[in-house]
Amino acid sequence: MPSPLPNAELVPSLWFPLVKKFYQAHYPSGKPNKADPIWAIKENGAILAVARLKQIGDDQLLTGMVTIPSRRNTGLGLHFLNNLQPILKQKNCYCFALDHLTHFYQRGHFQVINEVDLPKDLRTRFRAYRSQGRNITPMQYFSP
């Protein structure tokens, strides 16, 4: 019987250099910011998955969610999203999912929305990302 998956935890500032190294290794375009709450799943002191919740006005943007390659497609990512549910429902929460990951986020209670339904600050950011050629879909979290 496999061991239970570890739970997500808010990363203390002391771990920031490790998170930065994690992003450099697994998602080089991800730029962690000490000001953003960063959540991680760790096992035996090693980071398995990480995500940031960028606070933008009265809303939050789930961004930079990354799982180590050896643990992808194992249920860890969905477990991570489910662990974050109490945090995701504190404020309106959005994500700009890579097009090929929309189904994954839908399983985690995000729904595809029209970009005009994004709050103004997020809509501006979304359009800027799209103009850079990113294939992303706007999504919003809806509590189950």
TrEMBL record:
Domain N-acetyltransferase positions: 23-107
Database matches in InterPro entries: Acyl_CoA_acyltransferase, GNAT_dom
Signal peptide range in chain numbering: none
Gene Ontology MF terms in the entry: acyltransferase activity, transferring groups other than amino-acyl groups
Domain of life: Bacteria
UniProt-recorded name of the protein: N-acetyltransferase domain-containing protein
